[in-house]
Amino acid sequence: MSFQSLTASMEKLLKLHKSLYEIAVKKTEIIKQGDINSLNKLLQEEQVHITAIGKIEKERQAAASNLLPQVENPTVTDCLGVLKGEEHDRLLELSNQLMETVLELKERNFLNQQMIHYSLQFVNFSMNLINPQPEFFTYSPPTDKHHHSKIPQGIFNSKV
Q1: How would you class 31 by CB atoms within 10 Å of its CB: exposed for 0-12, middle for 13-18, buried for 19 or more?
Q2: Number of structural domains, the chain?
Q3: Does the residue 34 lie in any domain?
């Protein structure tokens, strides 16, 4: 029964990670569109998936511990070492699929992170064009009375 519960939890983990990847793909499109409300909804959905993954991971750890009670915190690799034949092949296949999915998810999340970073840089750049920060900012009066530090004007307040 331990093998069946282990493979069942691995299948659930694989399904949840694939679903999480689909959310990441949707997130990429929403980031491109700049739709903050939809992005917030997806982030909430993503959080539900992450919570479920944590719960299923605990189930997987319990199943692995039942399969290998002599090993403290056994991994899937530890379980593969004691399984033979079809059981070994099935668990290996699930493990490889899960690793591939996690890698794809990691790459997609990195892409999303980069897109958000560039979007924020663009927003900062745009804000600086509209309302630039003064170049010279002092807390005391200037020592040279003829020198007037002029605060640069934004593109909308500049003279033509």
Answers
A1: buried
A2: 1
A3: yes
Q: DSSP readout, 92-131?
A: HHHHHHHHHHHHHHHHHHHHHHHHHHHHHHHHHHHHHHHS
Q: pLDDT tens digits, the chain, 160 residues: what are they? A: 588 999 999 999 999 999 999 999 999 999 999 888 999 999 999 999 999 999 999 999 999 999 888 988 888 988 888 889 999 999 999 999 999 999 999 999 999 999 988 888 888 888 887 887 666 656 666 565 555 555 555 555 555 5
Give the residue from 76, 98, 73, 79 showing the smallest Cα distance to 12.
98
d(CA 13, CA 58): 11
Structure tokens at 125: 């750049």
Say if 70 falls within a structural domain: yes
146 is a domain residue: no
What kind and span of H or E run contains 75?
none
What domain range includes position 46? 2-110
